[in-house]
From TrEMBL:
<dbReference type="GO" id="GO:0003729">
    <property type="term" value="F:mRNA binding"/>
</dbReference>
<dbReference type="Pfam" id="PF13041">
    <property type="entry name" value="PPR_2"/>
</dbReference>
<protein>
    <recommendedName>
        <fullName>Pentacotripeptide-repeat region of PRORP domain-containing protein</fullName>
    </recommendedName>
</protein>
<feature type="repeat" description="PPR">
    <location>
        <begin position="124"/>
        <end position="158"/>
    </location>
</feature>
<keyword id="KW-0677">Repeat</keyword>
<comment type="similarity">
    <text>Belongs to the PPR family. P subfamily.</text>
</comment>
<feature type="repeat" description="PPR">
    <location>
        <begin position="194"/>
        <end position="228"/>
    </location>
</feature>
<dbReference type="InterPro" id="IPR011990">
    <property type="entry name" value="TPR-like_helical_dom_sf"/>
</dbReference>
<feature type="repeat" description="PPR">
    <location>
        <begin position="229"/>
        <end position="263"/>
    </location>
</feature>
<dbReference type="GO" id="GO:0007005">
    <property type="term" value="P:mitochondrion organization"/>
</dbReference>
<dbReference type="Pfam" id="PF13812">
    <property type="entry name" value="PPR_3"/>
</dbReference>
<dbReference type="InterPro" id="IPR051114">
    <property type="entry name" value="Mito_RNA_Proc_CCM1"/>
</dbReference>
<dbReference type="InterPro" id="IPR002885">
    <property type="entry name" value="PPR_rpt"/>
</dbReference>
<feature type="region of interest" description="Disordered">
    <location>
        <begin position="26"/>
        <end position="46"/>
    </location>
</feature>
<dbReference type="GO" id="GO:0005739">
    <property type="term" value="C:mitochondrion"/>
</dbReference>
<dbReference type="GO" id="GO:0006396">
    <property type="term" value="P:RNA processing"/>
</dbReference>
<feature type="repeat" description="PPR">
    <location>
        <begin position="159"/>
        <end position="193"/>
    </location>
</feature>
Length: 439
């Protein structure tokens, strides 16, 4: 067979094979079904963190925990627990704890513990000044001077704030000459007074009758280009009221507003309280008008004093009640029924309902005054409940009234009530009252 014939046959076979292959390839092929749940890009699941993050711990919570530990634990127990609190100790934390006013003795022990036990810690003028304030507020002037001397020995910077605190507490103890010496020492050490220190020193001099010296201090402050603040003007007006110069005091009252210094609530309370002592009713009315326009109110003791002053002068107290509508409403709600001297249990139920249900402590004060005047004796548990509630609200005037009432009526209070009174009077530096409670 010829080669050409073989080649042709082979070509035909190859052609047939190619055509069959092409035919096979041209046939429609069924594609595999798509999985709708299968994604084109598979994302790996993120690993779940099994470790929970610690909640944020705020400074106020830390300070509160340390304060409660110092207040409610013995020092031996507190000293063992303090290193295990996990606190990052610094001057700010120590100062905040001291400013929370733990018991004075424990505050001093904590102060010394921090200096001795906290590695690398040294007290600065902030913590020293706060410790000075604690001793000064408690009337421990010698201890305060000891801390001041310790500051000098340690080379701690003593600034105007520290000196102002010392001057205030020394003068409060009655040692005006000592306060003057501290002022001169502050000036010798080139500590420039601030408006606070100038004002505090002026008040000390005015109260001691050193008018010329106080006036010179005021002029010095103005020469130093230090602008008086609201309290500075209040000190000046308070002095003028005490000397009967009401018109001059009013002149300052209105001129300070013209230069942008507005009398605040504290200033108005101080001025009206001072005016009541000298029966200056016209001055009281002028201040009340300002308070009405600016939404200011009086403290309850000042309100009572102003009300008595206006009534004694035969003048209406309508403006006083309008300005202090919250107090007037409380007094108007006070039960006015006649008190039966023979029914102590009824009186007890009455005052208990006012105290426990309404928490109307102004009405309680009014009733205590009424029962004291009528010589009506309440049950011990009622007066004890009153004392504890009043002390919880830090109402020193009400606590003094309750103590006076129980003493005159011969009522023996519960132990917790006596402890509440002691704590309240210690916080307000009413040491004679503390002695009275202990007796």
């Amino acid at each position: 067979m010829r080669f050409s014939t073989i080649f042709c046959r082979l070509s035909i076979k190859l052609t047939l094979r190619q055509s069959s292959v092409e035919l096979f390839r041209s046939l429609p092929r069924q594609r595999p079904p798509r999985n709708p749940t299968k994604q084109r890009f598979i994302q790996k699941p993120k690993p779940v963190k099994t470790q929970t993050q610690d909640p944020t711990i705020y400074t106020r919570d830390t300070v509160s925990n340390i304060y409660n530990l110092l207040k409610y634990s013995t020092w031996e127990s507190a000293r063992e627990q303090l290193p295990n609190l996990g606190v990052k100790w610094d001057s700010h934390i120590i100062n905040r704890v001291l400013k929370a006013h733990p018991p004075m003795q424990k505050a001093w022990l904590f102060f010394n513990w921090a200096a001795a036990q906290i590695k690398g810690f040294k007290h600065d003028h902030f913590t020293y000044t706060t410790m000075l304030d604690i001793f000064g507020e408690a009337g421990r002037i010698e201890s305060m001077y000891s801390v001041f001397q310790l500051m000098k020995e340690k080379g701690v910077v003593i600034d105007t704030v520290t000196y102002t605190s010392l001057i205030h507490w020394v003068s409060s103890s009655g040692d005006v000459e000592g306060a003057i010496r501290l002022w001169e020492e502050m000036r010798d050490n080139e500590c420039e007074p601030t408006v606070v220190s100038y004002t505090a020193y002026m008040k000390i001099l005015f109260d001691d009758g050193r008018v010329e010296e106080a006036t010179e201090v005021y002029k010095e402050m103005l020469r130093s280009r230090i602008s008086p603040n609201c309290y500075t003007y209040t000190v000046l007006m308070e002095y003028l009221l005490g000397t009967g110069k009401c018109e001059e005091a009013l002149d300052i009252f209105f001129k300070m507003q013209e230069i942008g210094v507005q009398p605040d609530k504290a200033a108005c309370n101080i001025l009206i309280g001072k005016a009541c002592k000298f029966r200056e009713t016209s001055f009281i009315v002028r201040i009340l008008r300002y308070m009405k326009e600016n939404g200011l109110v009086l403290r309850y003791p000042v309100f009572l004093e102003a009300s008595e002053t206006l009534k004694a002068a035969g003048e209406s107290d309508d403006l006083l009640r309008e300005v202090n509508s919250h107090i007037s409403a409380d007094i108007d709600e006070t039960p006015t029924a006649e008190v039966d001297d023979t029914k102590s249990s009824d009186d007890s139920r009455l005052i208990s309902s006012v105290l426990l249900a309404k928490q109307n402590l102004v009405a309680v004060d009014h009733l205590l005054h009424q029962m004291k005047d009528r010589n009506v004796k309440l049950d011990s548990f009622v007066v004890s409940a009153i004392v504890k509630t009043i002390c919880d609200r830090c109402r020193t005037e009400g606590a003094s009234l309750a103590l006076e009432y129980s003493s005159e009526m011969g009522i023996h209070l519960e132990k917790t009530a006596y402890l509440a009174l002691v704590g309240n009077f210690l916080r307000t530096n009413e040491l004679p009252k503390v002695v009275e409670v202990v007796k």
